[in-house]
Design brief:
This protein is an alpha+beta fold and 181 residues long. The protein has five helices and seven strands. Strand 6 and strand 7 form a beta hairpin. Helix 3 packs across helix 5. It is globular. The relative contact order is 0.13.
Length: 181
């Protein structure tokens, strides 16, 4: 399912909150250290307030795509459009979380097509960022995107922030079966 900012039903919002809380410390820095999505300073502004500030920004600023198994939401992806970066508009993928029991099952690949189609409709590239030690995310992003900027030791000593840019047309072609290309 897909939800617009501020229009996530309470039952879905509760499940998304559970996923954010469960995955808080899987992120570098933890989501509970962040005041909002898209943040690029890691000063622990919201330290002591849990994931609430970050989660509130997800609910009010991002479109949400959910993925489910057996009628249960097992993951979501949040994105913003427009998102200005380096003087250009992007569709910015801010957050992707999969419940720990469902990781490694390619659930994040379910988010690619709706994101790519949205970027194509707006005629903008896609931007994502992650940390350099996030091996699963780096592996997934490298299928469709390229690193356009790296900020050394930005997240913590030895952990870089990597900015990735997708060309939505190229990503769409990669999703097509080989016989259709």
């Amino acid at each position: 399912m897909r939800y617009r900012p501020g229009r996530v039903p309470a039952s879905v919002r509760d499940r998304l909150h559970d996923l954010v809380e469960t995955s808080d410390r899987d992120f570098v820095p933890p989501l509970s250290w962040r005041a909002a999505i898209g943040e690029s300073t890691w000063a622990a502004q919201s330290l002591g307030r849990g994931v609430e500030p970050y989660f509130a920004s997800l609910m009010t600023q991002a479109e949400i795509i959910t993925a489910g198994c057996d009628r249960t939401i097992v993951g979501f992806c949040a994105f913003q459009y427009p998102h200005a970066w380096r003087g250009r508009d992007y569709l910015y993928v801010s957050t992707a979380i999969i419940a720990p029991a469902f990781r490694g099952r390619h659930i994040t690949s379910r988010f690619v097509l709706p994101i790519v189609l949205t970027a194509l409709r707006h005629r903008v590239p896609i931007l994502a960022k992650t940390w350099s030690s996030n091996a699963r995310c780096v592996r997934a992003l490298s299928r469709w995107a390229r690193v356009v900027e790296s900020l050394p030791s930005d997240r913590s000593p030895g952990v870089d922030t990597l900015y990735w840019q997708f060309d939505p047309g190229v990503a769409l072609c990669s999703l097509m079966p080989r016989w259709a290309r």
